[in-house]
Amino acid sequence: MSRRDGLKAKNTVSSEVTEQDIQEAFNVFDTDKDGFILSEEIGTVIRALGKCPYQSEVEAVVKEAGGRGRKIDFRTFSGFYRAKYKKPIDMERDMRNAFSALDADGVNFIYEAQLRQTLGSLGEPLTPQEIDILLRDLADGDGRIDYNKFVDMLVS
């Protein structure tokens, strides 16, 4: 491995996101260009980089950072980003298995009403408006959703 390859590998946080990517995302939210973002923006920036922390995890990070309204520098943010948050692709198999369990007929479809109820009550429940956005244009004329397409959409 050349020195250049070694540097590239060293700057890579995950298989897809580089240190430069993290810095660029941080800079987007550093609107006044003072080298800081607000603590309540940490979750948004982490999600923009492709990770999926639960809201409770984000709230814990904000608390650890000193609470809402605190300014966080890049080095501190980078440490929070490196935490082991799941990515959508990490949850793909579990999602397919869960939907398969709801698919009593084994036809790769579940009813929209069933999915709405599940999304609104399990884990971190989504609001009706969030569910509307998520399910827009997915149901067929009979109110069924191909859950494989739904999972593909979520992990892409």
Distance between the termini: 32 Å
Low-confidence stretches: 1-14
- Relative strand content: 5-15%
Strand order within the widest beta sheet: 1-2
Secondary-structure content class: mainly alpha
Helix-strand pattern: HHEHHEHHEHHEH
So what's the overall shape? Answer: elongated
Helix share bin:
40-55%
Q: What kind of sheet is the major sheet?
A: 2 strands, antiparallel
- According to DSSP, the number of beta strands is 4
Roughly how many Å is the radius of gyration?
Answer: 19 Å
**Number of H/I helices:** 9
Integer average pLDDT: 83
What features would you describe in this structure?
The protein is mainly alpha-helical. The protein has helices at residues 3-10, 19-29, 42-48, 55-64, 74-81, 92-102, 112-121, 128-135, 147-155, and strands spanning 36-38, 71-73, 109-111, 144-146. The longest helix has 11 residues, at 19-29. The protein is elongated and about 55 Å long.
Structure in a nutshell:
The protein has 156 residues and is mainly α. 53% of the residues lie in helices and 8% in strands. Helix 6 (92-102) packs antiparallel against helix 9 (147-155).
SSE layout:
Elements: H1 3-10, H2 19-29, E1 36-38, H3 42-48, H4 55-64, E2 71-73, H5 74-81, H6 92-102, E3 109-111, H7 112-121, H8 128-135, E4 144-146, H9 147-155
Helix pairs in contact: 6-9
